[in-house]
Amino acid sequence: MRIPLSWLREYTQLPAGARAEDLMADLVKVGLEEEAVHRPADSISGPVVVGQVLSLVKEPQSNGKTINWCQVRVVPEGQEQTLTGKGIDPSGVQGIVCGAHNFAEGDKVVVTLPGATLPGGFHISARKTYGHVSAGMIASARELGIGEDHDGIIVLSRLGLDPELGTDALALFGLDDEAAEINVTPDRSYCFSIRGIAREYSHSTGTPFTDPATLVTAPSAPEGGYGVVLDDAAPIYNVPGCTRFVARIVRGVDPTRPTPQWMVSRLRLAGVRSISLPVDVSNYVMFELGQPTHCYDLAKLDGDIVVRRAAPGETLETLDGKVRTLDAEDLLITDASGPIGIAGVMGGASTECSDTTTDILIEAANFDPVGIARSRRRHKLPSEASKRFERGVDWHVASVAAQRVVDLLVDLGGGTADDAGTDVGTAPEPARIHLPSGFVAERIGMDFSDELIVRSLGELGADVEPEGEGLRVTPPSWRNDLETKEDLSEEVARLVGYDKIPATLPVAPPGRGYTRAQQQRRRLVQALADAGLTEVLAYPFVSQTANETFGTAEAGAPRPAVRLANPLSEEHGWLRTSILPGLIDTAKRNHGRGFRDLALFEAGLVFLPQDGALGTSSIPPLGARPEEDVLDALYDGLPHQPLHIGAVLTGKDSPEAPNHAPRAWDWADAIDIARLAGEVLGVEIVVSQGAHQAFHPGRAAQLSLRSGETVGYAGELHPKLLAELDMPARSVAVELDADALFAAAADVVVAKHISTFPLATQDVALVVDAGVPADAVKDALREGAGELLEDVSLFDVYTGAGIDEGKKSLAFGLRFRAGDRTLTADEASEARAGAVALAAERFGAVQR
Question: In this structure, which topology does domain 516-606+641-744 adopt according to CATH?
Answer without folding.
Answer: BirA Bifunctional Protein; domain 2 (3.30.930)
